[in-house]
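Margin note from the TA: students keep mixing up input and output lines. Inputs are the sequences; the output is the structure of the whole complex. Example:
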Amino acid sequence: MQHGIAGCTGTKLVQGQIAREVVYRLLKKKFVLICTPALSAGVEEDVEFVKKYPGISIDGRGKECCTKILREKGAKIFHSINIENIIEIEGREYGSPLELNENGRDAINKIIKEVKSKCK
Amino acid sequence: MQIGIAPCTGMGKALGSVSRYAAHYLAEKIDGEIIDIVKISAKDKEKLALLNRPIIVFTGCTENCAQKIIEKANGKVVSNIKLWKILTRQTAPDSREDIGEKGKELAKEAAAKALEEIKAHK
């Protein structure tokens, strides 16, 4: 069965870039991309997909915007991950909201491990 | 007056990634505040309060999600830079994951175009 994956896509915080890169890496593991802004804007392809297939959301912060949007559109969410619950944000450097550094790339691996553990 | 800058942030296409770079490049040049459209959709009060200013949108695909989201939340879009309209073979981004130098060039062109439109508005 197909699984969808959506990320927070935040533009100003590094967590947004981490979420994006996690999503892109997992697309190679047979996940299907849910474009969060498109879903939110009501693009039919995304709206129909989330109603039909279970999905996972990768939130950048405790505000959980991505998960909220998925829920609002009637998505079947089987797991939500908040990046801040997996990696320490305060006092750590992961790069910029546009490009990650080595720590940022390590963070991606930790989050992917968490996602995979939930998808067995 | 401070300008709001709303990139589409779409993940399906490389031009969505270019839109984010364009927003950052423009924010470096003007008194502008980047507005996350996903936070607007999620009804984040702090971000909704930013919709009281003129907003420039950078759009990565024809779905035009950023403008739709901003307008649904009663924001006023004064300009929409559609990236595919200024895209050339010389500025085609490498991929959605990594837009490369050419994609960054396109983002700078988009930011410059937005800057021109802001000046024309004044």
